[in-house]
Amino acid sequence: MRNLLRMIGWGVAAVLCGALGVSAMAQEKTTLQIEGSTTVGPIVDEFTEAFKKSPDFKDVTITVKKTGSGDGIAALIDGRCQIATSSRFMKIEEFEKAVKNGVMPVAHTVAMDGVCVVVHPSNPVKGLTVAQLKDIYTGKTTNWKDLGGADRAIVLISRDTSSGTYESFVAFVMGKDKMSDKAEYVNANPQAHSRVATTEGAIGYVGLGFLDKQVKALEIGGIMPSRRTIQSGKYPLSRPLFLFTNGYPDLGTPIHAFCTHYLSEKGERIIDAKGFIPVTNY
Amino acid sequence: MNIPWRMRANSVFTVVALLSVLLIVASLLVILLPILWRGGSAVVFRGTVEFRRMQLEQFQRGDTAAVRAEVERAAGVRRHAYEIIDRFSAGLDTAGLETKARQLHREFGAQLRNRNLDDDDIFDLRELSGELRDEFLAALESSDNAEALGHLETILSRTDDERRLHGTLAAAFFDMAREYRDVVGRVDLSHREEYLDSLQQVKEAMQNLLGPQSSERLPAIVMEQYGATRWDQAQQHLDHLLWSETWVAVVPGQPLVKTRAPMEERFAGTELAELFPYVRDNAEAMLRPEWTFYWRYFLDDSMSGHYFGGVGPEILGTLMVTVLAILLALPVGVITAAYVVEYGRETVMIKALRMCVNTLAGVPSIVFGLFGLAFFVIYLQPKLGLPQGSSILAGGLTLSLLVLPVIIRASEEAIRSVPPSYKEAALALGASRFRCFVTVTLPAAMPGILTGLILSMSRAAGETAPILFTAGVAMGPIPTSIAQPTRTLAYSSYDMAVGDKMAMLAPHNQFGMVMTLVAVVLILNITAIIVRGRMARKLRGR
């Protein structure tokens, strides 16, 4: 019994010593902390993967956290991360808070993403106008029958209110009107996708990369979302994805390399492969 | 109540009790069995040649010569399938030409930079080549013969530019335009659209099934560099290749109905039709599935967002955070319990303390997470001179707060249930109160304390919310110190479910992760139970 107590005692002592001792060790390697949007996450993951293999970044450790655009920006303001990923631009309040904290946010537009309105593939409706979409989400239109579909109640699926995708959608479709109380909130693209794919009569919105056979994308104002229509600006519901840094990163630093990777050909191919629209055209 | 009624009530109670036990067992099975079964498929599965190639190239594992030979053999069978596709798509598929045009423009840019030219000239020429490329791409995109010819004529009419570009790479644009003009003269482009979409589907399914062709440019992300690594995955992709799913309107105004038709039918009468029976009959020879026991799943790092690889760092991270939390919470919890039971009298303060502990036990875990973020990560870490951001230390501290109430309550009960005669005997022999507690009461209470430990350990290992803001990262290196953040099993399986399509593309890996978490908790528990059993036996003097 004494032995056990002694062991516990030693364990605690070791842990505490470790905690103090490692702080110096941890700083030897440069760490690059990235935090924020789940939507931008896949791009950042693959960039990190690419950087891990590069010999120039042997001494850099990169950590990625994906909890939401707002969390990333908050972390940047607090100095808990060097790069915040976000699927929306910073809000005025966030900007003010950042500047007060001595953080000057600089946005790097890493890629473009379409917000695609999707329905169950059994739905005969082919497309909607923005006004129709707004009526659906405000709760004015409640049955597909009124839109030329089958007699079936509309199930509203929306992303949660803290997501950048939600804010882009609201800004574009809803304007100042409130979303219907009946809307069901899900917290990420895959959940929205699977909810729509399994519910006849559901309508939701996901990023371009989530279009597949299991859901059907709708034309908005007669334009089908696709790489080309989004890139050319014809498809109305698109938005830029951002990396935010504190000031423009110094040249030659890992942060600079990371934030400009999207401009390289390799970066473009990664963004393309992940289902987003690159801003470059090699 | 008379006796027959009592007997009846008794048997009803027995039946209800039995039923509830059965219900618990059944629900455990319903929850656990699928997790273990499907999770097990991450470790034991029929791995294809693509899996072995991936292991060799990404993890430097396996016999190079043997794998190469196997890849060669599989490639021999695949070649014929690719030949069929190439023959069919020669006049039809413009994607290849598109890639070529883009590449040409890029290479031309590189060529210009190497030449000794004026900056303005470089800019002009590059812009010119860009214009030619865009015109050519427009021609490729068009499905109208006249329109496509128009675009091509625009290129070919620029004879001045052709002369200017003579001898450079960009001159090839004119050759390509000429070639394509011949194709446009022969083929009805409006017809092309019918096949093009289906052909694209076929090509995608082939790419998913077999990986990129060796002649192709290597895809930018690792997960696309290999075909189906598992036979179950391969069969899904095969299904996509052989069957086309469409939703058709049977009754107007009614929901569409899903119909499946063999792809073969869609391409009936064309050269491509023979591809489907060929792939179907030779799928095994193309992929060479073999039963694989991938035990390194529990050690390997993952890549491409958990698409390939294992859960090694996650297991390590989970253990580190859990053990740290227990190491921090156990001494504090036991000492608190000892104080409350042995030293403190039933004063207002003790009552208040107990109430606080009970309240703490009911606080949602996300509140602990946010507290940990605000206090440990943002406030305490900079004070201690530790690096900014989440760390195992902060996560351990947060989790220790989370499990503290359980440990305190369990220890309190355990200490209280030690028979007073033990204590009285020790005190009568002249032991001080402290000595009596350390040498007599605590050992006797240890089995009960360990029960609390088991409960709290499982809780700590499985929590996501407190880790989310304090210790967890979705991607990062294997931690070498507790000042660094870590991946954990619970957080990583959450991460797989949000953001990317990983849970859809690699469900086995997500199940595998959850299975590992269940297994880790189980192993921790079994260890603690064995230790507890030993202790209890020792106490009984055996």
Key descriptive features of the protein:
heterodimer, A: 282 residues, alpha/beta, D-Maltodextrin-Binding Protein, domain 2, nine-stranded mixed beta sheet, two-stranded parallel ribbon, 11 strands, elongated, B: 542 residues, mainly alpha, two-stranded antiparallel sheet, two-stranded antiparallel ribbon, 22 helices
How would you describe this structure to a colleague?
The complex is a heterodimer of chains A (282) and B (542). With 282 residues, chain A is α/β, with parallel strands linked by helices. Chain A has two domains: 30-112 and 240-273, D-Maltodextrin-Binding Protein, domain 2 (3-Layer(aba) Sandwich), CATH 3.40.190.10; 113-238, D-Maltodextrin-Binding Protein, domain 2. Chain A is 38% helix and 22% strand. Chain A is built from ten helices and eleven strands. Chain A has helices at 2-26, 41-53, 69-78, 92-100, 130-138, 164-174, 189-198, 227-231, 254-260, 265-273; strands spanning 30-36, 60-66, 83-86, 105-119, 127-128, 155-159, 184-186, 202-207, 216-217, 219-220, 238-246. In chain A, the strands form two sheets. In chain A, strands 1, 2, 3, 4, 6, 7, 8, 9 and 11 form a nine-stranded mixed β-sheet that branches. A two-stranded parallel ribbon of chain A has the order 5-10. The model of chain A is unreliable at 20-27 (pLDDT under 50). Chain B is mainly alpha-helical and 542 residues long. Chain B has four domains: 3-40; 44-92 and 187-293, no CATH class; 94-183, no CATH class; 308-539, MetI-like fold, CATH 1.10.3720. Helices cover 71% and strands 4% of the residues of chain B. Chain B has 22 helices and six strands. Chain B has helices at 3-40, 49-59, 64-89, 95-114, 119-141, 145-156, 159-165, 172-186, 189-210, 231-242, 263-266, 275-287, 312-343, 348-362, 365-383, 392-416, 420-428, 433-462, 465-470, 489-497, 502-505, 507-539, and strands at residues 44-47, 243-248, 257-262, 290-293, 302-303, 308-309. In chain B, strand 2 and strand 3 form a beta hairpin.
